Amino acid sequence: MATHGQASFWAQANALLRKNLTYQRKNIWTNVRLVLVPLFLCLILLAIQLLFDSLMNSVSDKCGTNNDFQSTDCPIPNPPLLPPMLAIPQPKSRAVKANFFPYNDLPLESCRKTGTCPVTILFTGSNHSFGKALSGNIFGGSFAVNTSDLLPSLAHNVLAATQETGDNNYADPAISKDFPVYNIQPQCSPNSTWPLSFGQTKTAVKCVQGLSLWRNTSAAINDELFKGSWRGNPERLTNEIAAAYDLLSTDGKNFNVTIWYNSTNTDGSSGQRLVRVPRLISLISNAYLKFLKGPGTSILFQFVKEVPRHGSKSNTDIASLLGPLFFTWVVLLLFPVILTSLVYEKQERLRIIMKMHGLGDGPYWMISYAYFLTISFLYVVSLVIFGSAIGLKYFRINDYSIQFVFYFIFINLQIAFAFLVSLVFSKVKTVTVLAYILVFGSGLLGSSLFEELLESPSFPDIWILALELYPGFALYRGLYEFSQSAFRGNGMKWENVSEAGMNKLFIIMSVEWLVILIVAYQIDQVSSSGRSIFFCFKKSSSLSSPSTQRQSSDDGVLIDMEKPDVAQEREKVQQLRKEGSTGHAIVCDNLRKVYPGTDGNPKKLAVRGLYLDVPSGECFGMLGPNGAGKTSFINMMTGLLKPTSGTALVQGFDICKDMNKVYTSMGVCPQHDLLWETLTGREHLLFYGRLKNIKGSALTQAVEESLKSVSLFDGGVADKPAGKYSGGMKRRLSVAISLIGNPQVVYMDEPSTGLDPASRNNLWTVIQRAKQNTAIILTTHSMEEAEFLCDRLGIFVDGGLQCIGNPKELKGRYGGSYVFTMTTSSEHEEKVERMVQHISPNAKKVYHLAGTQKFEIPKQEVMIADLFSMVEKAKSKFTVFAWGLADTTLEDVFFKVATQAFSSS
């Protein structure tokens, strides 16, 4: 098969796009269900809305007239006119003489028993005589009203109440048959009470004396007000002053007054209640007018009135009320989907296997980002369409173009944020839990904390902008502004975007989107190239040549480098590096990998200073026991692990610096099959073939030849999903993937694992044919496979090469003996041993059990004819049940080398 060169950016993007489209077509219903999630959630919201409306309709029958002012569900188009009143203390709480008051002008405490304690108002200012004159004009005369013109006549009286106000002026709790309304007069005659009617409500007006007292300083008033409250009284008794005026510099030309009043509820809390301050202002203003113009001058304060309102049914758009929390959760549900998809490819190593076959970072990011953007766009568009279709004002009233800009910027920010977070995690379960915590936590924190901060006038705007740097809060802010606009009924338009703060939000999200995307891409490129993210802060280590005798490892263990074949390989590599030759496909120069110690365990040397040269057209086999470091070596060569020190050149490219270039000429058959379960064998090969820049009919032909070579073409197997393949079929497909496109370097980690003998022999033929123009490094536990496929072998033990050479050389070097076996009765064992020692004094007995003995006999000491003669002689003297003579096998060599290595370590 001809080499097709490196695939261009757009060829790689086309390959990944076609693969993704195929994959998504087979998972179409998953995507459909995802896009339909907003419809389902909007239907839930509609059901809640309909239920709420039905409850409101049942309440609307109770409104009847506008007299039910206490019902917040009823409309009040014409609020009542209510007389303004003062807030005065309860009779038992009014100020009297006490030991903590130094003043003698207060009434005696005995008035509390008769309920005749006056209402005290304090005065101070810079002009005592002027202040006394004004305080004398505060209270009116005797109570008199005209029932036909009630409110104007009541305005001449100073009305007061001991009941607290409500949170509006639609109804005054003081106007009730259960409580009296007080009229403040300079003097009250006994039992001064008058009946009064306000509409349908009948009440009583009761006289209370008003007492105006002068204090010399405002500090004295402040002290008296404080001590008169229960907070300043150690006995927790109240001695309350109704109000106080500081006339300051008020005179005949200047009116400058400060008013003290009590804004605290009787339970000590500060709630959302109206304060009866307007009447206090009216009293001092009229007193000043009377002083200037005479007693007949006044400005009547006739009534207070609330603004008309619709019934609350018109303001019960559930989407507007629940929008910030509900739709924050709805939109953020995309975050776990995107994040788990990215981490799944990382966990299953699908991303790295694609990179190993030539897929660059640029095409991967572009196609993956475009896919997530498409899904996210369809998701939010369906949300807006479904919400508008079912009549939610949250979507209908707010300008659609503003919604489009907001959602478009945010979904891009969300995708970029998911890419950044995915670089930190490698387990789907962990990241799924984290993602859903962020989803629900963002909504709950937004509604319980962030919304409070938005509504707080004292919280600095700069901190609001800082909090919006977190994407969840940025989303909540935008949805909150949409809900407020919809709730008010005017909707958000472009002319009030700045007023709502959305313009700053757009800028923050746009800048953050670009910054996060660039940072995530750069971090991904650095980490995927085999370098640490903090490589700029690390000192570069020089690749100095080791000594010709011994090399010290990181843990202090000395590695013997004196074996001739290993030393020769090292010298060859050093010569190649010195000459700068790049003609060899793979050159490993002092490649080492050390795993750091954990939980008190020492660090582990997986690969100890490996020197290796593999030219093109050679299949190099790595043999070794489990844990010898073979897979660590393969993982370093394929970019899964970074070398601790040393390096390797693949087609002249350094695996520590140019791993992305190495990937373009590489094929990999990993130890574990990395396949998409829903893609067929043909679709896998089409994808990887396109990554190898094979196009058109050449691609079709290459795929069919690959399928046929690994026996996956006939019987419709090629078009079955890989998830339905047996273990052996998956293994054959992995081998076919590694060889498609005729890569210059191929790594095969135990390629024939799980195959039956026929399939294994067929696979060996495929590999044998492929190595003609390719350098192959193969790890295996099968000596038969190693001897059949490999031009050279290296036995790897405890992280280092113990020997290297072709199979015949190794058997000749480490297996220069015959293995002689003979089985007799137990009483003749010594005779057999003496006969063997007679013909070969250096023979070594390696096995002995129940009459069966096995000897290693050096080839240089005997001839095969001597052994046959010895057997015939033995047969003539005693019974020989069985005997055999065998040459040394590769397995014997492996066992011998491994045993020697372990015994010397």
TrEMBL record:
What range does the record give for the signal peptide?
A: none
Q: Which residues form the ABC transporter domain?
A: 586-823
> Keyword Zinc-finger, does the record have it?
no
- Ranges that cross the membrane: 34-52, 321-344, 364-392, 404-426, 433-450, 462-480, 501-523
Q: What keywords were assigned to this record?
A: ATP-binding, Membrane, Nucleotide-binding, Transmembrane, Transmembrane helix
Q: Which InterPro entries does the protein's record reference?
A: AAA+_ATPase (IPR003593), ABC2_TM (IPR013525), ABC_transporter-like_ATP-bd (IPR003439), ABC_transporter-like_CS (IPR017871), ABCA (IPR026082), P-loop_NTPase (IPR027417)
What Pfam families does the database record attribute to this sequence? ABC2_membrane_3, ABC_tran, ABCA12_C
Return the PROSITE patterns for the record: ABC_TRANSPORTER_1, ABC_TRANSPORTER_2
Q: Name one GO cellular component term.
A: membrane
**Protein location:** Membrane
Q: How does it sit in the membrane?
A: Multi-pass membrane protein
The GO terms describing molecular function are: ABC-type transporter activity; ATP binding; ATP hydrolysis activity; lipid transporter activity
Q: Which SMART domains match?
A: AAA (SM00382)
Q: Which family does it belong to?
A: Belongs to the ABC transporter superfamily. ABCA family. CPR flippase (TC 3.A.1.211) subfamily.
Q: What is this protein called?
A: ABC transporter domain-containing protein
**Protein source organism:** Thlaspi arvense (Field penny-cress)
